[in-house]
Amino acid sequence: MERVWEIAGNLGExxxxxxxxxxxxxxxxxxxxxGHLLEENRWVNESITALxxxxxxxxxxxxxxxxxxxxxxxxxxxxxxxxxLPPIIFNAGFxxxxxxxxxxxxxxxxxxxxxxFISSPIIATGCWLLFGKFGINxxxxxxxxxxxxxxxxxxxxxxxxxxQDETPLLYSLVFGEGVVNDATTVVLFNAVQKLDVNRIxxxxxxxxxxxxxxxxxxxxxxxxxxxxxxxxxxxxxYFGRHSSVREIALMVLMAYLSYMLAELFELSGILTxxxxxxxxxxxxxxxxxxxxxxxTKHVFAMMSFIAETFIFxxxxxxxxxxxxxxxxxxxxxxxxxxxxxxxxxxxxxRAAFVFPLSALSNCLNTSTRRSTSITLNHxxxxxxxxxxxxxxxxxxxxxxFTHYGVPLDPVNATMVTATVIVVIFSxxxxxxxxxxxxxxxxxxxxxSNLEREPTISKEALKLPLLSFEESAATNLxxxxxxxxxxxxxxxxxxxxxxxxxxxxxMRPTFGGPRSNELS
Length: 519
Fold this sequence. Notes:
The protein is mainly alpha-helical. The protein has helices at residues 2-14, 18-37, 46-64, 77-95, 98-103, 105-131, 140-149, 156-161, 168-193, 204-237, 244-264, 269-282, 290-318, 322-327, 332-364, 376-385, 391-401, 410-441, 458-462, 472-488, 490-510, 515-518. Helix 2 (18-37) packs across helix 3 (46-64) and helix 15 crosses helix 18. The longest helix has 34 residues, at 204-237. The chain is globular. It starts with a helix and ends with a helix. The model is unreliable at 445-470 and 483-488 (pLDDT under 50).
């Protein structure tokens, strides 16, 4: 046995980078196998499986290294933001059911944007009041950053339980809020970094809001432009006649290029690559060969899956990082008090916007022909789905409180360990209870009694927005009818106008079948 460890030690000295990567890839493969075997388990999902295996692996490494380290690889927030996050967000945009997403766009934006602006101040203020009792002193920027860090949700556990076909409204709201929430959180976090904390006054909130709106709009525009350019090039040059590999490679590289350009211009790469994914699936995907359509969907899903598993594995290992625990000066009971206080703030911050904004959404949608509003059971599921914290919270905490993965003082170490514990606790505890809770709140027999948006008739789609062949009076009458519809049913009417504009101008230029050809 000693001979085996000696050989392993020699290999480690000779191949310092190869050995850790080899071990981590081996653990990743093992995690995929275990996740497959537990696919039908009522309590466990992929995220929980990766976390548990990460903790077990960290324990083994800790024992082998005699308490020196629990890591195979050293986490770097740049690794996360540049290599791991883009495929996750792009796949979310590429695979999204666009009809449901944009039908519920207003409600999604309420939860994903306004919700963050409600929960973030609650969490930041709560941390400021709580940490002082434990002797933790942070700067105003750190407290504001914590508000953004712990407002970021991870809805993967809930989405793995919900069925998109059975609960289209609920799935759309949870999925859409999760993506928009991540983007909003990162944009808000970056806006906080630009604040002059020594001159906080009544205009500070206005400045943060203006920065946020600028980043949100420009990042979205860049993503839309990247998707349209990709679609136009694929439609015009038709790569598939020579090689389907090139058209797949172009889509992957253009998506990644859009993300890197956003980061280069200090915009939100998450928003950019998300909307690039939406527009590529809406236009570019129809300009490639049939084999490439199948391949792209599976390739993008595979890349996202590996990146998510990688992150949760590392979080599990990082929970046993002895260096951070030794650097933190809090006692055991004080640490429990800090972690419990943060979890309570997350619960309160989440409830503070889910239930009021759901009521607002129901009120604003009473004029539409919705058969069912967001019921109390749906609201509880939405609230529960956002209690879990994940990869974005970890990455932002590392970015705020470490230098290349290493905290510089005890307070920063405490913040990093607190974030890791909150992520693990929320994912394991809330994740374990997600399937039973949804089974209880949403019985299968009632699962399909959800919102159905009114369909747009073929005749309405064929009507032009404006016709130069008709009189001015006819055009004015049509505009008046359209304005009346807009006032009564804004989301439905905007969607109707967009479908007609899309069929008349966008699809002929960038690709894709027209709406009347799909039916």
